[in-house]
Amino acid sequence: MAACIEDVLAKAEKDEAERLKSISVQKELDLEFDLGNLLACDKNSVDAHGLKSTKKEDFLRSLARDNTQLIINEIWKHPTERVEEVIVVKLPEATTPLPREKPPPKPKPPTKWEQFAKLKGIQKKKKTNLVWDEVHKEWRRRWGYKRAKDNTKEWLIEVPENADPNEDQFAKRNKAKKERVAKNEFNRLKNVARAQKLPIPGQGLVPTPQQSKSDLTRAISVAKVSTASAGKFQERLPHEKAPKNTGKKRKFQPLIGNFSDERQKQLDILKVMDSKKPRIDMTKAVNRQMREEDSESRSNARKGPGKKGRRGNMSGKGKGGGGKGKGKGKGPKGKPQNQRGKAGKR
Amino acid sequence: MRPLTDEETKTMFEKLSKYIGENIKLLIDRPDGTYCFRLHNDRVYYISEKILKLATNISRDKLISIGTCFGKFTKTHQFRLHITALDFLAPYAKFKVWLKPGGEQSFLYGNHIMKSGLGRITENTAQYQGVVVYSMADVPLGFGVAAKNTQECRRVDPMSIVVFHQADIGEYIRNEDMLT
């Protein structure tokens, strides 16, 4: 009995020791740590015997446990602090470079201005965000809402010497601003289109420094039909050619024209339609085949009962084969024939 | 009113040929006078030359109908045959279906033809072939499309559809205002 108790106690002790393994791990070579990535490299040779043994899983688990213990030991060497009842450690910078997940972004295609600036060697100058506003005596943003030196907030504008005195200078200024905004937006769209290699917006008859011949001919044809009569009374130059690609007009034959011509045309259409028909009509061919089979089986069925008796006398073999086949054919196919006969009589 | 364009003529002939095959020639090339097709309000009329010339006196908006209306072009440029064309289709029809007296009424009310109403059918009628429907006394009643070919018709059960309804002479009463 005593031995038994001792055994149990020893076992419990052993289990406890197993559960709470020592934090000190012995290794031949020290591990290399990169705590920023929580990474440790174990350069010790792996025990080949342990790997091949039947307790491979246990061996690997214990190896992993030991190495993890070493990382945690390493972490504890760093200064700790307490933040909201939790002990935290500030990890050092990572030393192992990791490859990025996605390819680096492609550089944006340069806008027209960036191209020009590069050509001329124009550098971007950094300007301060805030500037001193003399009127309000405070620092204000250089642009945007509540900007310094806001000329839209002026209550009076001096009419320039050479301007029309009745012109509304405020409206003029607003209009100019709106046009500048619109132009900027247009240029932005052009940049987007150029980057995506789309046709640049604003096509048609926009003023260009050098118009090609096709541009000019198109401009002429557009101008010629842009009259009140849609170009009907527009005179042509002596050797001017008729404009191309001006669209087709629907035209119908006269209501009472040449009737024989019309008939001939319709007959020609019929001829073409006939020639396009397939020579062998598949469904028709299949139908014909089906019909032949039907009539054959019907005639066999009709002959059947008379012959059956005779054949039976001749040979058992012939009767068995022939009788079976006919019996099958007779059942379903005999019926419709009868029905049809009745329908015809009615 | 105007003659049909080539395209329109082709669509119409294709539809007609489903019922009368190459007999369209007999409609175009008639020994008893010149007949032609004319389009008016999207409807195709089959008119003799004589009547056509008389009809030119009537203004377009006042003209309701001339000759025989064969059908109309839908907005998608398909051609729909009207029951009024039956007088010209029936004599030349290639595939026919005869109805038992019991099935006649159902068909004239615009229903499909069941096997039970079928009296006779032309041999080797293909599936989806245009057919002209007759009563047992050989009175043309309308036209439709064969749902089954002749062989299959023999085998199917009495309540299955053998001919799809397209037009019947009951429409003269039911759809009087549509038929111009």
From TrEMBL, chain A:
What family does the Swiss-Prot or TrEMBL record give for this protein?
Answer: Belongs to the RRS1 family.
Q: Which GO terms describe its biological process?
A: ribosome biogenesis
Pfam families listed in its UniProt record = RRS1 (PF04939)
Query: What protein does this entry describe?
Result: Ribosome biogenesis regulatory protein
Where do the record's region annotations for Disordered lie? 227-346
Its function?
Answer: Involved in ribosomal large subunit assembly.
Q: Where is the composition biased (Gly residues)?
A: 315-324
Species source reads: Coilia grayii (Gray's grenadier anchovy)
Question: Per UniProt, which keywords does this protein have?
Answer: Nucleus, Ribosome biogenesis
Source taxon at top rank? Eukaryota
Q: Membrane-spanning regions, if any?
A: none
Renumbered to this chain, the Low complexity biased-composition regions fall at 334-346
GO cellular component terms, alphabetically, are: nucleus
User: Where in the cell does this protein reside?
Assistant: Nucleus
Question: Lineage, please?
Answer: Eukaryota, Metazoa, Chordata, Craniata, Vertebrata
Q: What is its main location?
A: nucleus
Locate the compositionally biased regions of type Basic residues: 300-311
Task: State where composition is biased (Basic and acidic residues).
Answer: 233-243, 260-282, 289-299
Automatic annotation (TrEMBL), chain B:
Q: Which GO terms describe its biological process?
A: ribosome biogenesis
An example of a Gene Ontology cellular component annotation for this protein is:
nucleolus
Cell compartments where the protein resides:
Nucleus, Nucleolus
Q: Which domain of life is it from?
A: Eukaryota
Give a Pfam family name.
pre-PUA_NIP7
> Can the keyword Nucleus be found in this entry's annotation?
yes
The family database entries (SMART domains) matched by this protein are listed as: PUA (SM00359)
Question: Does this entry carry the keyword Manganese?
Answer: no
Q: Which UniProt keywords apply?
A: Nucleus, Ribosome biogenesis, RNA-binding
GO MF term set: RNA binding
Instruction: Check the record and name the PANTHER family matching this protein.
Output: CYCLIN-DEPENDENT KINASES REGULATORY SUBUNIT/60S RIBOSOME SUBUNIT BIOGENESIS PROTEIN NIP7
What family is this? Belongs to the NIP7 family.
Role noted for this protein:
Required for proper 34S pre-rRNA processing and 60S ribosome subunit assembly.
Q: What is this protein called?
A: 60S ribosome subunit biogenesis protein NIP7 homolog
